Amino acid sequence: MRLFRFQPFFAIILRHGAKLTIFCFPKELKPHQRHVRNRRWIIALTGGLLLLSGCNSLPDSGPTESRINSSQRNPKKNAVGYSIIPITPQLISSLQSEAPPLFSSLDSADPHPMRTSTNDTIGPGDVIQVAVYEVGTALFGSSSSAMSAASSSSGNGLLGAAQPSPIPLLGVDGNGNVQVPFVGQINVAGMTASQAAQAIQSRLKQKSAAPQVMVRIATDIANSVMVYGGVRRPSRIPLTPNREHILDVIALAGGQEHASQTQNQVQNQMDEDYMVRLTRNGRVTEVPLKVVEDDPSQNIVMQPGDRVQLTYEPRTFTSFGASEHVNQIQFPTPILTMTDAISLIGGPSDARADPNAVYLFRFEHTDVLQRMGISVDTSAPTAPVVYQIDMMNPSNYFLAQKFIMRDRDLIYVANAASNKFYKFFSLISTVIAPGIAAAWIVR
């Protein structure tokens, strides 16, 4: 900042880089007026110098493009190891070819691929009902003499109307054993109801005349799945020999919860916002409900012991920097592109933004980054990455229309490098404006 005197004006020239700003004021003042004016300008110049020295400490909404790039190359500042990747047609193709984790991978990882569950076997925790029909002297009858009398009245030595024995419900213990009266302990784990009936009947032939045994699974625990979370009726769903699929058990649990109506407004809940988490044999896979509905191969057959959790996770993205709105926004449509997201935040601010530097921060899958040739830690499922797009290039608007947003993405619009320069002059104007006004008044 320099002060020049020349007739008939005083001039103040402010310089910041290659830019100059000149303030000119009339010199024709009386001595006492000049004294007041000089004192005011000394104060203004001193304040301006102090402000210029502290220009870098002026408040700002975020880093500039150069600051982001330099921080990425500085290992001390880039502690998470993020990379900056420009959005190109090759990048769009690579992201579109990404294969998310699917439920079909659980079937391929089954150690016994040829084994299929028929969902009709008895297991620990089940409760079975055993009915024994006898003729002649009934082992399980309430009165042997009454049974004999009924047999004599039939004329042919057979019981006219056989009644099932009053055997109480039998529980299967943790070892798969069941205790049957007059028979003893029988291991029925892995047997079907008919196989268990044959095993009990073979034991009874030694003690009863021509017994007939029927077994029914009254409470099926072994052949069931747990369905919980965002369903109307969380419960244990018994599987049948019909072999229910994952959408079947969700429907049997009442289906997904619907938003309650509040003040005549219903919250927008889409199938894309529901996640289906399946736990099988110690492995957990999570897939959007919409994917299961659209892809029949992901509507896999349930196996005993599966656990299905339906969760409502509204997809959101966050915006920061020199945009018109700094906010967290929920996806309004099933598929949201980058152009949609930028329009939702009002686009780059004309007064503050650098349209050349629009960034998208994301934790990307490591296999995708490896295909791009980026060195990442393969032991981690995701790695941080920053995608950059130049919105001053018209062709990039077509790329942004194909770039699909994901849940938890962060859009940052970089600040223009001239922001602090303009802020500095705004502060200078605030300081010297009273002096200028006083000089004109004195004049």
Task: Give your account of this protein's structure.
This protein is α+β, with helices and mostly antiparallel strands and 443 residues long. It folds into four domains: 2-59 and 421-442, no CATH class; 65-98 and 315-416, Outer membrane lipoprotein wza fold like (Roll); 104-111 and 244-312, Outer membrane lipoprotein wza fold like; 127-219, wza like fold (2-Layer Sandwich), CATH 3.30.1950.10. It has helices at 31-53, 65-73, 89-96, 104-108, 144-153, 193-204, 246-252, 289-294, 338-344, 366-371, 395-402, 419-442; strands at residues 2-6, 9-16, 19-26, 83-86, 127-133, 170-171, 177-180, 184-187, 212-219, 224-229, 235-238, 274-280, 283-288, 307-312, 316-321, 328-330, 353-365, 382-389, 409-415. The strands form five sheets. It has a six-stranded mixed beta sheet with strand order 4-18-17-19-15-16, with helices on both faces. A five-stranded mixed beta sheet has the order 11-10-14-12-13. A three-stranded antiparallel beta sheet has the order 1-2-3, with no helix packed on it. A hairpin with a 6-residue loop joins strand 15 (316-321) and strand 16 (328-330). Mean pLDDT is 78; it is low at 1-12, 14-20, 143-155, 259-266 and 421-425.
